[in-house]
Amino acid sequence: MERINSYLKMMRISDWIKFYTFFPIIGAYVACGISPDLIPIGTILICVIAYGFVINNYFDVEIDQKNKKKLELDINPLACNRVTKILILH
Predict the structure, then answer these.
(1) How far is CA 88 from CA 21, 38, 48, 58, in A?
(2) What is the pLDDT of residue 87?
């Protein structure tokens, strides 16, 4: 269960849920109103944002390992060695 939590933490949901979802969802609502089309749009949006944060964690691992504050806050599970690059690629 801890490994699953670490992979979920790689997506940094708490970082983007409050900022990155509001404007695209509002834009989709303005474009098509209340519509069943909002469900796939929202799903795609969530996947793209989560992917972006995982990629950011992946490529910033060396930088994050040098940053003591990020290590203490456990922001990047990859930098804290709780997940490995090999499992992310598969």
Answers:
(1) 24, 29, 16, 9
(2) 57
